[in-house]
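Support reply, case 0932

Customer input (verbatim):
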Amino acid sequence: MAKSSEPQVEDEVKVDLDDPNLFINRELGLLEFHRRVLEEAEDESNPLLERVKFLGIVGSILDEFYMVRVAGLKKQVAAGVVDVPPDGMTPAEQIAAIRKVAYQLMVESRECLRDDILPRLGEAGVHILDYEALNSKQKENVKSYFDEVVFPVLTPLGFDPGHPFPHISNLSLNLAVLIRENGHHHFARIKIPGTLPRLVPIKRSSGSVRKDGTVPHNHYFVWLEQVIAANLDALFPGMEVLESHPFRVIRDADFVIQELEASDLLETIEDGVRQRRFGSVTRVTVNDEMPSHIREILIENMEMDRNDMYTLEGPLGLSSLMGLYGSIERYDLKYPPFSPPVPAPLRIDPVDGNIFSAMRRGDILIHHPYDSFKPVVDFLRTAARDPDVLAIKQTLYRVGRNSPVVRALMEARENGKQVTVLVELKARFDEESNIEWAKALEREGVHVIYGLLGLKTHSKIALVVRQEGETIRRYMHLATGNYNAITAQLYEDIGLFTCDEDLGADATDLLNYLTGYSAKMDYRKLLVAPINLRDRIDDLIEREIEHQRTDKNGHLIFKMNSLVDKRMIQSLYRASNAGVKIDLIVRGICCLRPGIEGVSENIRVISVVGRFLEHSRIYYFCNGGNEEIFLGSADLMPRNLNRRVELVFPLEDASLVRYLRDGVLDEYMHDNVKARIMQSDGTYVRRKPESKEEPLNIQTYLLEQRLETSED
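Our regenerated output:
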C-alpha cells in the first residue's frame, strides 16, 4: 500500500498550492452568492410575494456589502496597503471588479422588478404604481395622506452661504431639489422619512366575484418619494420648484473598536453606532434623469469618488420591498405556512418528567426550522423555575427584540439562580439591540460579560448546573445558530441537548475562559477557536488522507456558510490530490476552485439557496468507516479560526450521526431544484433532474418529512 501512495505524494509536492490561480477572490465570491439570491427572485416557481422578498434581500445584502466590504477595501487603498489576498488581487483591482459585477446585479434586479414581477403583481391584484399613473381619485387620497401624515415629518434643508451642506446619513433616501426665488437658484435636500412606509397604500378596491364566491381585494401602492416630489410646493411656498431627483447614500458602517483604549466597552460601542451614520460615502445611487449639475453638487459636497455614483433606472433602495411582503395578507402569493413540531424525545409528559429527564435518557438533536424552537426556550424556563437548578451560564450573539430567551434568564435571576451571560456587543448591526439587553440583564442582577479583548464571541452555548442528590449534573444546549426565536423560523440550524459529563466539563472550562482568566489549551471533546479548532480540523483532514492511502475510502463532507481560509483550502487540496472524495455544501463564499486537474478534481462544491437561509455548520469525516460528525458555530474563514471564540462539538450518538449522514447530508447532495454546482471559474450552474430522477428540493423534503413524522 505504501508504494502505491508514493506517486500521489510526489504529485502533491509538484503542485504550488500558493498559486493565486487556485483561489477565488472573497469579494467576488460573495457577489456570486448575491447573484444566486437574485436567481430566486427571478425563479417563476417561487410564490410571487416571496420573489418580491428575495429582491428586497438582494438590495439589503448589497447595501451591507458596500457598508462593510467595499468600505474596508477603500480604507486599504487610502492607507496604501500592499498585502493581497490568496487570489493576488490588489484592493484597487478588487474595487474595480466589484463595481462592474455589483452594478450588473443592481441593473438586473430592477429589470426583474420592472419587466416581470410588477406586471405579475398587477395581474394578481397588487398594483405598485408611479404617481403619474394614478387617477384623480387616487391622487386625492394620496394628497390627504401627504397633508396629514407625511408633511408634518418633512424637514427641507437648504444649501447656500447661510446654510452648510446638510449631513446625509447612511442608508437614507433623499430628494435633491432645485428651486428658484427672485431669479436665484437654490439647492435643497429632503430626507424621505424612514419611519413611514416606502410604498404608500392607496384605498383598496374590490374586484369581481371569483368562481368560489369570494370577492378579491385589489391593493394599490405608490412610491413615497414620488408623493413628496408631487407636493413640493407645500414645502417651498412662494417659490418655484424647478426639478427634483431622488438619490440614496451608503456609507462606511464598519467602525473599528479600539478596545485597548476603551475604558468602557459599552459606551465605546454606543458611540460607534452613532458615528456609523456619517462614515465616508461608499455608494450613491441616482436615476438617469438627474442632471450633471446636481450630480456635481452631491459629489463635491459629500467628498465622494465620482466612480461611486451609480445610475439606475427605477426605484432606489430595493431593500424596502421587504415591507411590502409583510403588509399584504395574500397567503396565496406566499409559501404555505407551517407549524414546526417538537421532536418526539422532547414531548414531555408534564406529570412524569421534564426536559432534564428527557436529556438524561440520551442526546437529543433539534433541526430548525423543521423542529420548533420552543424546546430551547422551555429548557431555560424550566431551569429558571426548577428549585434544584443552581446556575445558568450562556452566550448571546444575536437574540433580536422581545427575546423569550432573555426573559427566561431574567426570570431565573428573579428566582435566585446565579445567572451569567456573555453578551457580544460587537455583533455587527445588532449592537443596539445587544446593548439594550445587556443593560436590562444587569438591572436584574445578572452577571453580564461583554466579551474578550480583541475577539468576538460567536459560540452558541447554554449551560445549566443542577443539584441532584449529592452530585452536580450539567445540562447543555449547544448549537450552530443564534438564540433568536424569530430567525429560528427562517434559518436552517442544528442544536444538541446533552448532559454528557466530558462535554459538561469542557463547557465549564470554556465559560470560565470567557468570563474570567484562563490559559487552558486542552479540551476533552470540544474544538474551540482560537485555541485548538484550526489544528484539530487540520489533523482530522490529515487522518482522512491516511485512511485514503490505506483503505481507499477517504471521504469528507463539510457544510458551512463560507470557505475562505487559505490554509484550510490548501489542506482540502492536499486531501483531494491524495484521492479523498470531498463534498462541500457552501451556501455563500467559496474561495476554493473545484475540478482542477491535479489539485481538486475530487472536490465537488454545491450551494443551496431557497426558502430558508442555510446556516448550520456540519463537518463529516468517514474515518475508515468509524464515522464522525462535528457541529458548531464556525465557518472555515480566517476570522472564525483566528479572531473569534467559536465552539465546535462532536455528535457521538450513532443514530444521530446516521440521521445527519443519510437523512440530511446525502439528501443535500441529491438536491436538483435549489442546488447549484460551482464551476472552476467561480460561477454556478443549477443542478437539474436527470432522466427518471424525481425533483428534490432539500428544504421542502425535510419540511414535509418532519410534518409527516409529527402526524404519526
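We compared this against your earlier run and they match. Two observations from our side: The longest helix spans residues 91-123. The radius of gyration is 28 Å. Please reopen the case if you see a mismatch on your end.
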